[in-house]
Amino acid sequence: MSDHIYKIIEITGTSDKGSDEAVRNAIARASKSVRHMRWFEVLESRGTIKKDEVESWQVTLKIGFSLED
Amino acid sequence: MSDHIYKIIEITGTSDKGSDEAVRNAIARASKSVRHMRWFEVLESRGTIKKDEVESWQVTLKIGFSLED
Amino acid sequence: MSDHIYKIIEITGTSDKGSDEAVRNAIARASKSVRHMRWFEVLESRGTIKKDEVESWQVTLKIGFSLED
Amino acid sequence: MSDHIYKIIEITGTSDKGSDEAVRNAIARASKSVRHMRWFEVLESRGTIKKDEVESWQVTLKIGFSLED
Amino acid sequence: MSDHIYKIIEITGTSDKGSDEAVRNAIARASKSVRHMRWFEVLESRGTIKKDEVESWQVTLKIGFSLED
Amino acid sequence: MSDHIYKIIEITGTSDKGSDEAVRNAIARASKSVRHMRWFEVLESRGTIKKDEVESWQVTLKIGFSLED
Amino acid sequence: MSDHIYKIIEITGTSDKGSDEAVRNAIARASKSVRHMRWFEVLESRGTIKKDEVESWQVTLKIGFSLED
Amino acid sequence: MSDHIYKIIEITGTSDKGSDEAVRNAIARASKSVRHMRWFEVLESRGTIKKDEVESWQVTLKIGFSLED
Amino acid sequence: MSDHIYKIIEITGTSDKGSDEAVRNAIARASKSVRHMRWFEVLESRGTIKKDEVESWQVTLKIGFSLED
Amino acid sequence: MSDHIYKIIEITGTSDKGSDEAVRNAIARASKSVRHMRWFEVLESRGTIKKDEVESWQVTLKIGFSLED
Amino acid sequence: MSDHIYKIIEITGTSDKGSDEAVRNAIARASKSVRHMRWFEVLESRGTIKKDEVESWQVTLKIGFSLED
Amino acid sequence: MSDHIYKIIEITGTSDKGSDEAVRNAIARASKSVRHMRWFEVLESRGTIKKDEVESWQVTLKIGFSLED
C-alpha cells in the first residue's frame, strides 16, 4: 500500500538572533531524534525580554515527518 | 489510583479513495506503534491535486490513547 | 411581516459506516422533534476507536430550522 | 528566480451524493478557469435540508495553484 | 550553542475531584516518561456526567519540556 | 438501529465559591429539564467583580445528552 | 440557593432594513417562546444578495435567559 | 449536471455613514465585475479615526456568486 | 527614526440606539484620555435585553493610537 | 448622557494554590491601580512545572471596569 | 462618490532565504497581475524540510488593492 | 505574598527593514513608559505596500511586564 502517513510533533526553538533562526534551531535539534522530516508550520512566535531588549526569540512549530512502513 | 490519563498524538493519513479512508489509514498505521487507542478528532482535511483531479486526500487527526500505569 | 427567523440546534450523530452517514443519522433523528429544517453545518468530526479500528464516527452539526409565526 | 508562487481561490462545491463528491465537483469546475492546481483545503462543510433529508452537500475549499512566470 | 529547545506533548488528565486535580494528575503521570518538564497550558476542559453529577473532570494540557543536548 | 444520537445544549452556571462549583450548579439545574446527560465541555469562564473581589463565577458549558429512540 | 443559571439559545434573525433590525427581529420572535431574556451576543452577520443588492440581512445571535427555580 | 458551484471573493467596502452602508458599497462595486452574486458574510469590521471621530467604516466581506456552466 | 509605533487599547461602548452608535460613544469617551487615535476594530457585539427588547448595545473595540516620540 | 463605557485591561495572576486563586490574586493586584471593576473573563490558563509538580498557576484575565464621566 | 473599495487576494510566496523574503516574493509576483496594492497581512508561515534543513519558506498573505472606479 | 502579577499591553511596531526589526522597535518604544518587561507574543504581522514593494512592516505584540508591589 503506497498511501503515505505522517506524524506531527510540536517543538519550540529559541535563538538570540531572530525568529527565522529559532525555526532553524528547532529543526536542527529535532533531526537528532526523528528522520524523514517533510514540512513545518509556525504556531506561535514569542520571546523573552531582558533590559528592554529581546533576550530570546521562541518560535513553536509543528513538524511533519513521514512514517516508514 | 483509578484516574485515567490519555496521551494525544497527531497523525496525517492519506488515501486516494476518500476522506474517511484517509482517517482509517492513519489509525491503521498508528496501531503499529501505540496501543489502547480510544478516540480521534479531525483537525484538518486537505489534499493534493494532479491533472485537475484529487490525487490524494490528507486528513490530520488527533488520536487519544490511554496510558497504562 | 415576512422576515424569516431560524432557530439553530446542535446535534451529534453517530454511525459505524462513515462520516456522511453520521450526518444523515443526526438529521433523521432530529426530524422526530423539529420541523422545517433548512440547513446544517458541520462543527466537529470525531470518533471512537476499538481494537485499532474506527468503532463509530461522531459528527456534531448545527441544524437550522425556520420558526413559524 | 526559481521560487514558486501560488494563488489561492475559494470555491464552494455542491453534490447530492456526499461531501467528498462536493469536493470533486468544486475542483472539476475550477479546472475550467484556472490551471496548475496543486492542493486544496476544506474550510467549511454545510448543506441544505429538504423534507428531513440532506438535499445538497456544500463544501467550501481553498484551492492553490501555481502562477507561471 | 546555548539556545534551548523544548518539545511539547499533549496529555489529558482526569480526576473525580476537580479541574485543578486533573491537571496535577496529568503532570504526575507524564513525569513517568518525560523529564525536565517546564510549563503547561490548558487546551480544553471537559468531563463526563453520570446520574446528573460530574463523574470525572478531563483536562487536556500541552506540556513543554526541555530537550537536553 | 443502534446508532446513538446526542443533543447539545448551552448553559451558564454561576457560583460565589469557585469555577468548578459553577460547573456543578449548571449541571444540577439542567438535570431538572433534561435526562441522560453524558458529558460537558467548558466554553467560557467569566465572572462579575464587586468591591474589588469576585462576586460570582460564571462558567458556560456545552452539555451533551443522549436522545432516546 | 441564590446562584443564577442561564440557558443560551441560538437564533438567526433576518431583515431587509439592516443588521440591527435583524437583531431586533430575532429577539422579538424569541420572546414568543422563552421568557426572562437577559443578553445577546452576535455570532455571525451574513445576508443574501439579489439583483446586486442586499436582499436580506441575516444575523445569528446567542441569547441568554435565566432559568427560574 | 445540475450541481451548483460558487466562487467566493473578499471585498472591503468603506463608508462615512455606517457599517451597513459599507456593506452596500462593497456589493455595489463588486457588481461591476462579477455577476450572479448570491450571499455575503461579514469577516471584519474596522474603521479609521480622525479628530476623535469615525472617519470611515471599513467592512470586509466574503461574497459568493454562482459560476455558470 | 521615523518608524511609527501604535498602542492599542480595548474599550466597550454602549448605546440604546444601535451598534454603530455604541462604536461612536466608545471613541468619544476614549478621546478624553488618549490622543492621536488612528483606527478601530470591532471585537465583539453584544447587548442586554429588558422586557423582550434590546436595552443596550455593547460593542467592544480595539482602538489604535500613535505614540509620539 | 447615561451610556456606560468600559475599559478592558489584561492581567496575568499567579498562585501556587490553584487556578481560581490566581484569578483572585490578579483582581486584588489590579484593584491597586484601577477602580470600578465590573467583570473578568479568563483568556488563558497556564503554569510552570518544577520537579514534576505545578510550581505556579498563571491565569490571564481580561478585566472590565467602568469609566467615570 | 469617494468611498474606497478594496479587493483582497490570497498569495503564497516562497523563498529559500527566509520568511520576510517569501513575503517580498509574493508581492513582487502579484504586481504582475494586480495594481494599486495597499497592504498585506500574514495568514500562515510554513515551509518544506529537506535533509534536516529548511528547503523553502512558504508564507501565505492576504493582499489588499484598491479598485478604481 | 510572593505571587507575581503581570500586566499585558498591546503595541504595534513598524519598520522598513523587516518583521523582526518591527518587534524590536515596538519594545524599544514601550520601554519609555513601562518597566520590567518580561515577554512578548506576536499577534499579527501586516504591512503597507507602495509601488509594488513593502513600504513598512507592522507587527502587533502583546508585551507582559511585572507589576511591583
Q: What is the strand tally of chain A? A: 3
Pairing-aware structural class of the strands and helices of chain A? alpha+beta
Q: Mean pLDDT across all residues of chain A, rounded? A: 94
Shape descriptor of chain A: elongated
Radius of gyration of chain A: 14 Å
Poorly predicted ranges of chain A: none
- Side-by-side strand order of the widest sheet of chain A: 1-3-2
Biggest sheet of chain A, open or closed, and with what strands and sense?
3 strands, antiparallel
Number of helices of chain A: 1
Query: Strand content of the residues of chain A, in percent?
Result: over 45%
Order of helices and strands of chain A: EHEE
> End-to-end span of chain A in angstroms?
9 Å
Greatest interface and its participating residue counts: G-H, 13 and 14 residues
